[in-house]
Design brief:
Elements: E1 4-6, E2 13-15, E3 24-26, E4 34-42, E5 55-60, E6 66-67, E7 76-80, E8 83-93, E9 97-104, E10 112-117, E11 124-131, E12 142-144, E13 150-156, E14 164-170, E15 184-187, E16 190-194, E17 203-211, E18 224-228, E19 241-249, H1 258-274, H2 293-297, H3 300-319, H4 335-339, H5 345-358
Parallel strand pairs: 13-19
Antiparallel strand pairs: 1-11, 2-11, 3-10, 4-9, 4-11, 5-6, 5-10, 7-8, 8-9, 12-14, 14-17, 15-16, 16-17, 18-19
Amino acid sequence: MAFGMFPKDQEQLRLLPGATSGLVEFTVPKTAGKMFLRIVAVGSGSEPLGGAAPAIQLRAGSGVIATVPAKPAEDVPIHDENEAVAKASWTRESNDVFKVSIAISKKAERKWRLRITNEDVEELGFVWVTSTDEAETLQPRISPAERRRSFGTQALFNKPLPVITVVVANIGPGALRITDPPDTDLGGGFSLMARPNKIDPNHADSLVFKAEPVTPGTPEDELSTQYVIGTASDSTADERTITLSRRGTSPPPPVNPKPAKDRKDNKDSKDQEIEKGPGVPPEYTGVAGPVDVDSLFGAGEESMASQRVQMKKTFTALAHFIPPELRPDMSATPLAREAEPEAGPDDAGEAEDRQREGG
């Protein structure tokens, strides 16, 4: 068996629409009469895109690159130099998985390479597995959500901690089956609370972890754990490892109501400064420079004279509406003179006539 999972240096090979990968070498034993490849086209979401199939090409040795057709088309011959050494075709399976079958007629030690072109209008990722055993190509590949592999939870000391939910995507061409049962103790105060039975290619589901409350003084090495997700796949431990950590915090200090009381006290003290006892002059804000009377009354003496005239007219008008018996005695007041109407030419003549009649 010659097993290989690709790409080896990253989770998936991302290709823009119309982009082509380089020629990627894979191992075919010199005694092998058959070889299988399973390729999954990974969309941007956690579900199959169902778009255009990629272009799949193979090269044997120093021969010409051959484009592999889809069944039910006839298998394409693959040449090394000028000799046909194999033939191949592919079939489309569920979840955007493509199985390539190679029948080798001339067994020999030679270099085999694969090239993939994204024929869809959207960017896609590609993961593939090679093996002489068809069943061995049904391998999952775990991809934690957001490409994160560290997750944490925290709460007050001795208080229940929120659970940690890790969304796991399967970007491999085979189904992902997690072998760890629920309630598995993972160490570091964590246990596996729930997990799905199976995650198909191009799908995602959640692992839920429970954390024990943190007590003050817990050693640091007892607050985290590295969990290697148990599966039946041949993927590496690094691909299946996530880190879980928990933290405890102290409650915040109580709110001190004194500042609000101090503000009230300060207000009272300021009020007391204004309401000082007799003989203590209040503090006022001074005005720099001389005060312009015109700025206060508008136009100095002219304005004051016009105000007096207006007051006299107002008083005279009001006097007509007050019964004589209710009118105040104005003879002894400074306003008596101002209250009397000014004598005009006609008024002066009438006064002389009254004097003659009286005489």
